[in-house]
UniProtKB/TrEMBL annotation:
<dbReference type="InterPro" id="IPR007138">
    <property type="entry name" value="ABM_dom"/>
</dbReference>
<protein>
    <submittedName>
        <fullName>Antibiotic biosynthesis monooxygenase</fullName>
    </submittedName>
</protein>
<feature type="domain" description="ABM">
    <location>
        <begin position="4"/>
        <end position="92"/>
    </location>
</feature>
<keyword id="KW-0560">Oxidoreductase</keyword>
<keyword id="KW-0614">Plasmid</keyword>
<dbReference type="GO" id="GO:0005829">
    <property type="term" value="C:cytosol"/>
</dbReference>
<dbReference type="Pfam" id="PF03992">
    <property type="entry name" value="ABM"/>
</dbReference>
<dbReference type="InterPro" id="IPR011008">
    <property type="entry name" value="Dimeric_a/b-barrel"/>
</dbReference>
<dbReference type="InterPro" id="IPR050744">
    <property type="entry name" value="AI-2_Isomerase_LsrG"/>
</dbReference>
<keyword id="KW-0503">Monooxygenase</keyword>
<dbReference type="GO" id="GO:0004497">
    <property type="term" value="F:monooxygenase activity"/>
</dbReference>
């Protein structure tokens, strides 16, 4: 097993900033209960308040994939359809 990290960046469409912030905050509690979650923190860009960043660490790629396909992530995606200008996820491993 090899630990993986992820940086997830979501940018709200203009006017949807607070709705998206609330929906993203709703991911925190259920994700913190997931198997293999080592770190899951949400940040908001101080210079671009439409931009939200998650810093994540997972036990391995399997637990990260399980998170991405979890019921609460799927519900979030359905709820926020049309609110997000862009989503980007960088999955990282340490070293070369």
């Amino acid at each position: 097993m090899s630990e993986v990290s992820a940086i997830a960046i979501s940018v709200a469409k203009p006017g949807y900033e607070e709705k998206l912030a609330e929906a993203l905050e709703g991911l925190l509690a259920p994700t913190h209960k997931e198997r293999g979650m080592l770190q899951y923190e949400m940040y908001r860009d101080v210079n671009e308040p439409r931009c939200f960043v998650f810093i994540e660490r997972w036990q391995d790629n399997e637990t990260f994939d399980a998170h991405c396909n979890s019921p609460h992530v799927e519900a979030y995606l359905r709820t926020t359809d049309g609110w997000v200008e862009s989503n980007r996820i960088h999955v990282l491993k340490q070293g070369k």
